[in-house]
DNA sequence: CACTTGACCTGTCCGC
DNA sequence: TGCGGACAGGTCAAGT
């Protein structure tokens, strides 16, 4: 579910809500992949720890504590991190939340703070996880060892993307841009949106694309993800932000979940859904001509 | 090494 | 209304 824009939206919310709060305890409901490598008594390492910052790298959230430990979370397909408690901009935000009373049956973890605030990790499919790691070891996670640069950072240029995606010259272009070692954070929604905007068919091999076409894909991916962050991300079914609210990017999408609807460039052409490398894929067959 | 496929889970939707 | 099967936004392990 959550891709870079969704995780970044959650990060921005948590960055407003969590710092300076002190953790008290944690309840683990049912989260088999969480705390696999944590110290034996997680609570002992969480009790009295104050949140100092909330960071993001790729699709991973990092909540830094003042104890030299960090809570590290991956939401995978259906994870949510939802905050409940009094805020400096007032209570009442939870009233327009998409999620109801918490905990609910998808709640896997609940972190309680000394001031009564609570942070819920909900995850219908249990693919996601939360780890507690020494902050200095976060960057040593295997995933971080191979992940590519952040596409929305100024210093990440199209040529960095081109150099990395060329390592996958034999692959079709869609699975190549979903590869997190090329650039971080692109998932199924923004892959389809970027390829439509770049007028590139997802099944074309990377080797059959000119550098200029690859550059266009990168620029369009950055544009759609930046717009999505402005819109609070894409809510299809599960995704909500740190206050439990949905994002509105899909109202602006050109192809994702628009099968059977008119292409915004060719009104007589319907968006078609196909399967590419095992993933549902949305294209305009006129904008994006097959290889 | 590069590429593809299946597995991890639960819930929902669609056709019979 | 019930039931089986396909499918869902992400990664990883194992296969070729």
Question: What report would you give on this structure?
Answer:
The protein has two domains: 4-146, Alpha-Beta Barrel (N-terminal domain of MutM-like DNA repair proteins); 158-283, Helicase, Ruva Protein, domain 3, CATH 1.10.8. The protein is 24% helix and 21% strand. The chain has helices spanning 4-17, 42-46, 142-146, 158-165, 173-178, 188-198, 211-230, and strands at residues 23-28, 51-57, 60-65, 69-74, 79-84, 107-113, 118-123, 129-134, 272-276, 279-283. The model has no long low-confidence stretch (mean pLDDT 94). It binds a DNA duplex (16 and 16 nucleotides) through helix 6.
A few lines on this structure:
With 291 residues, the chain is α+β, with helices and mostly antiparallel strands. It has helices at 4-17, 42-46, 142-146, 158-165, 173-178, 188-198, 211-230, and strands at residues 23-28, 51-57, 60-65, 69-74, 79-84, 107-113, 118-123, 129-134, 272-276, 279-283. The chain folds into 2 domains: 4-146, Alpha-Beta Barrel (N-terminal domain of MutM-like DNA repair proteins); 158-283, Orthogonal Bundle (Helicase, Ruva Protein, domain 3).
């Amino acid at each position: 579910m959550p891709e870079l824009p969704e995780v970044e939206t959650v990060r921005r919310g948590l960055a407003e809500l969590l710092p300076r709060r002190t953790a008290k305890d944690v309840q683990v409901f049912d989260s088999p992949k969480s705390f696999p490598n944590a110290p034996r008594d997680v609570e002992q390492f969480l009790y009295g720890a104050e949140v100092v910052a909330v960071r993001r790298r790729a699709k991973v959230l990092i909540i830094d504590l003042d104890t030299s430990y960090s809570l590290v979370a991956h939401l995978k397909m259906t994870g949510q991190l939802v905050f409940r408690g009094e805020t400096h901009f007032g209570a009442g935000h939870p009233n327009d939340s998409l999620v109801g009373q918490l905990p609910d049956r998808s709640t896997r973890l609940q972190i309680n703070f000394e001031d009564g605030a609570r942070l819920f990790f909900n995850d219908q499919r249990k693919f996601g996880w939360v780890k507690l790691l020494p902050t200095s070891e976060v960057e040593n996670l295997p995933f971080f060892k191979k992940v590519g640069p952040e596409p929305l950072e100024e210093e990440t240029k199209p040529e960095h993307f081109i150099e990395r995606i060329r390592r996958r010259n034999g692959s079709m272009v869609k699975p190549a841009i979903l590869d997190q070692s090329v650039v971080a954070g692109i998932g199924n929604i923004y892959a389809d949106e970027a390829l439509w905007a770049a007028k590139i068919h997802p099944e074309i091999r990377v080797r059959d694309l000119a550098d200029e076409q690859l550059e266009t894909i990168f620029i369009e991916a950055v544009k759609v993800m930046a717009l999505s962050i402005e819109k609070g991300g894409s809510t299809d079914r599960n995704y909500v932000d740190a206050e439990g609210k949905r994002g509105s990017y899909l109202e602006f999408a050109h192809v994702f979940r628009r099968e059977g609807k008119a292409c915004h460039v060719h009104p007589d052409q319907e968006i078609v859904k196909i399967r590419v490398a095992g993933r549902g894929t949305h294209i305009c067959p006129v904008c994006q001509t097959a290889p």
